[in-house]
Amino acid sequence: MMLRYALRTVRHRKGGFLGAFLALMCAAALITACGTLLETGLRGTIGTERYAATPVVVSADQNVHRTTVKHKKGKTKTKHKAKPIAERAWLSENLTTRLSRVPGAERVIPELTFIAEPLTPTGTGTGGRTAYGHAWDSAPLTPYALTTGTPPHAQDDLVIDRYLADRARLKPGDRLTVQSTQSPRTYRVTGIAAPTGDGIRHQTSLFFSTAEARRLAAHPGQVTAIGVVPAEGTDTADLKAAVAKALRGTTAQVSTGDERGPVEFLDAAAARIKLVSMGGAMGGTSLLVAVLVVVGTFALSVQQRHRELALLRAIAATSGQVRRLLGREALLVGAAAGVAGALAGLPLGSWLHGRFVALGAVPATLQHTVSVFPLFAAVAATLIGAWAAARISSRRIARIRPAEALAEAAAERGRPAWGRILAGLVLLAGGTVLVAVLSVLRTEPASTPVTFLAVVVLASSVALLGPLLVKAAAAVLGAALRRTGPGGRLATANLRGNATRMASVVTPLTLLIGMTCTVLFVQPTLGHAARAQAREGIRADWVLAAEGPGVPAGAARQLRTDRDVATEVVRTTVRVGLDKYAAQGVSTAGLARTWDPDVTAGSLAELTHDTVAVSELAADQLHLKPGSTLKLALGDGTPATLTVAAVYAKGLGFGDLTMAHDLVARHVDNPLAATVLVSTARSQEELAAAVRKFPGVRVVPPATADSLQAERLQANAEVNYFAMGLVLAFTAIAVVNTLAMSVSERVREFALLRLAGATRRQVLRMLRTEALSVLLLATTLGSGIALAVLTAFSIGMTGSAAPAVTPLVYITVVAAAGLLALVGTALPGRVALKARPVTVATARE
User: Fold this and answer.
1) Which among 4, 269, 503, 617 counts the fewest CB atoms within 10 Å?
2) CB atoms near residue 479 (< 10 Å)
3) How buried is 675 (Cβ within 10 angstroms: 0-12 exposed, 13-18 middle, 19+ buried)?
4) Residues 426, 430, 434, CA angle at the centre, nearest 5°?
5) What crossing angle do the helices spanning 2-12 and 14-43 adopt, rounded to 10°?
6) In the prediction, which pLDDT does 783 show?
7) How much is the pLDDT for 109?
8) What's the maximum distance between 2 C-alpha atoms anywhere in the chain?
9) Is 188 in a helix, a strand, or coil?
10) Beta partners for 256?
């Protein structure tokens, strides 16, 4: 019976349910899109290219491990955790001898992989593909075969792939300069090779002689991986088992099938974790915002039907029947919106993945994965959200007595229910606690989720306390509004008499302004503080910067003299236990002339290959002081035990750990310096002349280097802006949707005002005044929420209560919110005023 009534209600009140449908559909689409990203991170395929013709690949373990044993109540529990390292881990070359004796192995091929950027004479580059160097002996792994020319034998011989040859218009006999791990070198192209098939899509290969490849790889006695080719008739699974048995007692790993992709593309394997984090954060925030928006939309819908529901209660409908009616209506709308939104979320998720690839946040080698699970999750979340929203919204009308229901239908209740006020105060207290917690969090992974959760929780408190806030705003603005004429007086009366309806509009506007300001100013707050510390700590006269993979060590040696200091800086991340810390390696000779991280304990003069300097944050987290011992895993997983030489304050600008340059450079994929700090009396022109033979290396003043760093930070921030942009777009849609719903149901009110003598222009002016009043309140609340959250974030991360707020950007945010409010009010208002007042008043009686 209730289902039939629900179907009839939805069919005859399509306009009333349209707003709820749109809100739920957008929520489902957003949840589906985020779900596909999450699933791609969890199960996304990384197809192999380089090892296509090699069924079995042996590689080093790319993780650090920790095993804990707990004894409780006579039982022993063992937990094992692993975290990925930042750089490529290498294998001992001696394993090739052991593997060559494995039964069923026809051929064992060692592999070397290292950076090798071709500096093409035409300047065409690699077309977005990553360039890697290899030894020609490993060409059968793909396989690559010569299409013209001869293999490389001498140290200056080079074989390039067909893609690079066509793009750069190179042929055998041409010269090509390559920037690899050492100083750039010019090679003679002896041949052009092509892979079997068209499986190579994301990389360009340059093949060197074996001796030259070993020199450039700079890991004597080690290899990147080892390919094992089975003999004819040998099953891959049997060979894998035999290889694993031969490697027992080592940390080497054996991969076959799709497992080979992560071995080849380490960046794609690492991106999985980033995508899981990003998809989870976006999905979680989207779900919280969706719940808040949908509850508000349903509350407005139920309020608009208060008279109808009161009549149902008056003709003997029970509380349970009203709840079941509204619940079934919500499920019907939720099911339709959930299915439509879930289907729309699939192309949205694919587009999102493509944009993340274009922005460099996710490598193209991590293929987008789609299954039915995100769709089911979105539909289920939509149904549950719709049903819960309906139950929450109908709680008041279903519980009161029929006579009271009719009385409340005639006029809005003067004061919100005590339960609503209490819940709002609880959420306000919870948001305050989150802000307080945020002020003591000192790491970005810990503070970021708390930041956005605090905004949503505080906006939820505004949703519950909204009627009281609207009435308070009306009391404050009433005197000023009444002076603006009849429209202002009507707007004041509406703000006071219809506070609940106005509060439903304030909530999404508050959320939009608060969330947008938080998203836009969190990264600048962190970036500005880091750059300020870096500017204060760099004492160099000039900085060497590179347009390519980095500054070669030869360029620094060219500038280093008895009077001049050149400090090479190479960056990586290390693991202390399972925790990740940003680290850098610096040349220690004359370091005090180029770099000052504000040492607070110890001395940088003690910084050697066996010591480390740590930031105050790292020292506090790891309980370190000068003289303490620190055990860590370097970028490639190599364990190291160092003594703390100094503690410094400017960790935000220079990283948490600082070690000797040579120690770090030996354990990273790219040993080229990110920058070189130069202290000299020579001019910029003299320095530029000294490094002219190093392509792409520029001599710039520290201020220019700071601007280049700002551009890199901005590029990284764009990923976060884009990730949260969809949530903000959904919130903006909710703002317009709620405003349109609020105005479109006031046709009778507008008609009565017209019959009472108000002109059409006065009614429109009343709507504009209401919208501006609501905007002023929402701007105050949203800005206050954002300011509190950003200030707490700044205190925790930078130690200073100085969030980086750009006035022009803030004004743009408020202006955009104001435009949405005016458009969402004016257009429905004009449509509502088209009908003749007498016709409307008669029809609604």
Assistant:
1) 4
2) 9
3) buried
4) 170
5) 100
6) 94
7) 96
8) 101
9) strand
10) 56
How large is the C-alpha radius of gyration of the chain? 33
Cα 527 to Cα 457, 712, 800: the distances in Å are 26, 10, 13
End-to-end CA, the chain: 28
- Please report which residue ranges of 745-804 form alpha helices under DSSP H: 747-755, 760-798
- Do 31 and 724 meet the contact criterion of CB atoms below 8 Å apart? no
Of residues 309, 201, 260, the one with CA closest to residue 58: 260
Length of the chain: 845
> Is pLDDT of 708 > 80?
no
207 by DSSP, 3-state: which?
A: strand
Higher pLDDT, 669 or 385: 669
The helix-helix angle for 760-798 and 418-438 (nearest 10°) equals 40
If we measure between CA atoms, which residue out of 845, 788, 782 comes closest to residue 817? 782
CA distance 356 to 358: 5
What is the chain's percent helix, strand, coil content, to nearest 5? 55, 20, 25
CB 224 within 8 A of CB 152: no
Torsion sign, CA atoms 426, 432, 433, 435: positive
* CB contact at 8 A, 294 and 20: yes
pLDDT in tens, 242-264: 999 999 989 899 999 989 999 99
Measured between alpha carbons, how far is 536 from 731 in angstroms, rounded to an integer?
40
Cis peptide leading into 374, omega within 30 of 0?
no
User: DSSP state, 538?
Assistant: B
Here the tokens at position 667 are 């354990």
For residue 770, pLDDT beyond 50:
yes
Q: Which residue has the tokens 């300011």?
A: 787
Cβ–Cβ under 8 Å, residues 643 and 607: no
Residue-wise pLDDT for 582-611, tens only, equals 999 999 999 999 999 999 999 999 999 999
Q: What are the tens digits of pLDDT across the range 9-36? A: 555 555 556 777 887 888 888 889 888 9
Rounded Cα distance, 794 and 501, in Å: 36
Report the 10 Å Cβ neighbour count for 716.
Answer: 14
User: What pTM was computed for the model?
Assistant: 0.83
Each residue's pLDDT tens digit, 116-125? 999 887 666 6
Helix spans in 597-694 (H) = 616-622, 651-654, 661-665, 684-690
Q: What are the φ/ψ torsions at residue 413 (nearest 5 degrees)?
A: -60, 140
pLDDT tier at 409, thresholds 50, 70, 90: very low
Whole-angstrom Cα distance, residue 326 to residue 389?
Answer: 10
The DSSP symbol for 366 reads: B
619: tokens are 């020292």
DSSP string across 694-735: STTEEEE-HHHHHHHHHHHHHHHHHHHHHHHHHHHHHHHHHH
Query: E-strand spans in 96-181?
Result: 105-111, 114-115, 117-119, 130-135, 144-149, 157-161, 175-179
Q: What is the DSSP letter of 745?
A: T
Closest among 793, 828, 133, 816 to 447, alpha carbons compared: 793
d(CA 443, CA 581): 10
